[in-house]
Amino acid sequence: MEIIEEKPEKTILLLGNEAITRGAIEAGVDVATTYPGTPSSEIADTFSHIAKYLKKKNKKPSFYFQYSTNEKVALEVAAAASFSKLRSLTCMKHVGLNVASDAFMTYLYVGCKGGHVIISADDPSCHSSQNEQDNRYFALFASCPMLEPTTPEEAKEMTRIGFDISEKLKSPLLLRTTTRLNHARGPVTLKKPRPSKGKGFFEKDPDLVTVPATARKKHPELLEKMEKAAEMSDNSPFNEFIQVGKKSKMGILTSGVSFNYVKEAAEDLNLDVTILKLGMTHPIPPKMIKKLLTDCDTVVVVEELEPILENQVHTMAHEQGIDVEILGKSTNHFSRLYEYTPDIVTKALAEIFDKKIPFPNSKESALTLPSRPPALCPGCPHRATYYALKQVAPKDTVYPTDIGCYTLGKAPPLEVADLLLCMGSNAGTACGLSVSTDQKIVSFMGDSTFFHSGIPPIVNAVHHNHDVVITVLDNRTTAMTGHQPHPGTETDGMGDPANVILVEDVVKGLGVEHVEVVNPNNVKKTSEAFKRALDFKGTSVVVSKAPCILLKNRDRRKGGKPVPTFEVDQEKCTQCDTCLNEFGCPAFYKKDGRVYIDEQQCNGCGNCLQICPEKAIKVRKEEN
Amino acid sequence: MKTSIVLTGVGGQGVITATNILGKAAVNADVKVYASEVHGMAQRGGSVYCTVRMGDVSSPLIASGTADVIVSTEPIEALRYIQYAHKKTQVITDTNPVVPFTVNVGGEKYPSLDDVYKDISSHAELITLDALQIAKDAGARITKNIVLLGGLAATGLLPFDPDILLETIFANVPPKYKSVNDTAFKGGMDVVKKK
User: A120-168, pLDDT tens digit by residue?
Assistant: First the structure.
């Protein structure tokens, strides 16, 4: 646990996300909240790991941390801490801010008391997301000051200093990151943590009640804050001019991880160029930008996704009558799509500056390689649920799905994902389909998604008596993002015992008449439960409950129990290929016409024993 | 001076752990380092691509044709990222294929290992080893990534002493697994040294 055990001044390697947590601890954060989502998850997980580690050593953590039920709740919990004059932090993935936006937009009017850093982890290229929205627009939309780090070290410092900026402006602050910062590792030099307060005091303040009269009064105050923030931006240590080569009439404006690619490309291409690197990107520093635009004939803007800096620079040049050529997305030198890379940035700059690409020639393989998309793990209980359901569901059944590992049921041979918008959308779209078609509707959501935003659409289904089967795939964890707890688990993010809320109790309380609870690892019984649910006229819920195989195996190994693996009895196997073509466990493969189980991949669930018609699967004699 | 390393393989094979250990070793050796990783959905059995860059660098990502070493826990994953290699790049790969489900049910083809190795050799310098077997012989198949780190150290392309890497491995595994990791690392080193 070097992140808290190492002494100040020591340099250690940290993930961008871990560096953010460290920055918050150095700033004396009191309350941290989240709903997990890639690429933000390890910020919160690091708080959780630290809390559990300290408790084991009988030490009191300097903060309170929780995995909240969703991002909006997370923001509200932390905002209340800020109103009580505590320092607070909320982290989430970019689409999480959509969920939190109702609270966020008005929070900016009200302002904060204790410093509050809100982290939005954006995901250009949609590595683990349903879209690549650019949340810098939220800073502009809500009038929220914003910082964007380029390295783990800067992420730590921006988080630490972000609390000071937030308190000076009495405004929450948005720390906007992208996957390539969250999941980059780099050296970080530790500073001595400021002591946290522990408990604050809520002083009553009529300005905290946003009735229309208050809101009208607070809006002009918000605009004044942004003027003050613009002055801070001009004096921010995070905004700086960097000279590469000799002074010239060429400039580059950049921010975030793009700076890293610009810097190396400028050096590799031997450019003579002035780089204005922005760390505080909302508001942009008006004086520094004006200097860049006046000192240069040509300014290249390098930013991933939307042309947010570029549009603002165009506006400023126009308003102030500055004669400067601005190159970027509007001139098709850069794309509004996907994550940038050293190749993309170097190629674009080489073209603009008329230089040759300085790297050795290389090319992709001429062979056609099989694609390797992510898949449900071997042994995943969701596969058993899907397989069992498909044995009894009519052919044209529609399967609305949701955000989580189980989305991977989209892949063949299961193909049980027909519709997905966002967290909780499975049950809402199921309601709509039930009034729009006569097809059978079976929707899926995970246990954590159920608590996040799955309950209101079930209320809607019950109230309108929609004829749908809503499946809650209860694998006892938030698996996809790294096995975080949720309101249905026995412990919370601090490692304390928590009140368990059972999915089946909730849905019964909502008035669902037909509720089935099944163990998907019993395939036959699960099929029977789905058959009964499909036959029921009205809203039914199937809770398919079995722990994530990765957690189960972790517990097995901890308990010193070996994880069994299985193999195909070649004498009995008739190559009917049910295991491959219907069950689709990725541990199975075919070689020279025969079926095998890859020992590197088998997770030992044994469900293949139930689905093999020839009983041709047996336990492998294991080595290690 | 820059050293750029690609680590690749299949989710669950310890590629991210190897990346983290290599980064920590660089910090221990007082060498500036940036690394980049893949988390979340991509980890679920998907192709994993990580990079470690050391020395006078700003970016954790690598430009095409600039990798010094590609380390892979699976043969076709080495080839999938071969555009990062140049003629002198050392490509170190384990020889045990993990056949993706797209071959089992999607009708895609896993090429013959001969073709894979021939193609890698036409782009770069290839070193193959049965890291899985070396790991099993050492006492735990999950140390396959450590075998490959041993192989990487044996190339002499790391800007620090192999002992620093081994010490970093020890510091990041439970004490009772120290000797298994020691055997795995040295096993990988010996095989690559002989090639």
Answer: 999 999 999 999 999 999 999 999 999 999 999 999 999 999 999 999 9
Residue from A43, A190, A365 to probe the interface with B (highest B Cβ count within 10 Å): A365
When pLDDT is cut at 50, 70 and 90, the band that residue A624 belongs to is very low
Report how far residue B183's alpha carbon sits from residue B186's, in angstroms, rounded to the nearest whole number: 5
* Cβ count near A270 (within 10 Å): 11
Interface test mutation site (partner A, options B20, B73, B105, B180, max chain A beta carbons within 10 A):
B105
> How many C-beta neighbours within 10 Å does residue A276 have?
26
The distance of A515 to chain B (nearest Cα, Å) reads 30
Q: Does one domain contain both A295 and A402?
A: no
Q: Which chain B residues have a beta carbon less than 8 Å from that of A180?
A: 36, 60-61
Query: Counting beta carbons within 10 angstroms of the beta carbon of residue A574, is it exposed (0 to 12), middle (13 to 18) or buried (19 or more)?
Result: exposed
> Is-contact A50 A61, C-beta < 8 A?
yes
Is the CB of A41 less than 8 angstroms away from the CB of B139? no
Q: What is the pLDDT of residues A255-311, one digit of tens each?
A: 999 999 999 999 999 999 999 999 999 999 999 999 999 999 999 999 999 999 999
Question: Which residue in the set A187, A412, A588 is minimally distant from B33, CB to CB?
Answer: A187
Residue to mutate among B32, B39, B89, with most A CBs inside 10 A, is B39
CB B8 within 8 A of CB B145: no
Q: What is the total count of domains within chain A?
A: 4
Q: What is the CATH number of domain B2-98+110-194?
A: 3.40.920.10
Boundary of a domain, candidates A529, A555, A581: A555
Same domain, A434 and A516: yes
DSSP B195: -
Regarding whether A611 and A528 lie in a shared domain, the answer is: no
- Do A331 and A185 fall within a single domain? no
Q: Which amino acid is at A362?
A: S
ipTM over 0.85: yes
Q: How far is B87 from chain A (nearest CA, A)?
A: 8
Q: What's the rounded Cα separation, in Å, for the pair B57 and A261? A: 10
Per the prediction, chain A carries an average pLDDT of: 97
CA-to-CA separations, B73 to A379, B48, B128, B140, B170, in angstroms, rounded: 22, 10, 10, 15, 21
CATH number at residue A111: 3.40.50.970
Which residues from chain B sit within 8 angstroms of residue A11, using beta carbons? 27
Does residue A483 sit in the same domain as residue A610? Answer: no
Q: Judge: B46–A372 Cβ closer than 8 Å, yes or no.
A: yes
- Per-residue exposure over A349-358, b if at least 16 CB sit within 10 Å of its own CB, e if not: bbebbeeebe
What's the gap in Å between the CA of B192 and the closest CA on chain A? 23
Give the count of Cβ contacts less than 8 A between chain A and B. Answer: 206
Residue length, chain A?
Answer: 624
Tokens 């050096």: give the residue.
A267
pLDDT band at B87; cut points 50, 70, 90 = very high
Q: Enter the DSSP assignment of A554.
A: H
Question: Does a structural domain hold residue A364?
Answer: no
> Model confidence over A438-466: pLDDT tens digits?
999 999 999 999 999 999 999 999 999 99
pTM of the model: 0.97
Q: Which residues of A touch B84 (CB under 8 A)?
A: 362
The tokens for A215 are 């809101």
Instruction: Indicate the SS3 state at residue A233.
Output: helix
Contacts A405 to B, Cβ<8 Å: 41, 44
Asked if A95 and A188 sit in the same domain, the reply is yes
Range(s) of the domain holding residue A477: 381-555
Task: Indicate whether A361 belongs to any domain.
Answer: no
Domain assignment of residue A375, yes or no? no
Segments making up each domain of chain B, as ranges: 2-98+110-194
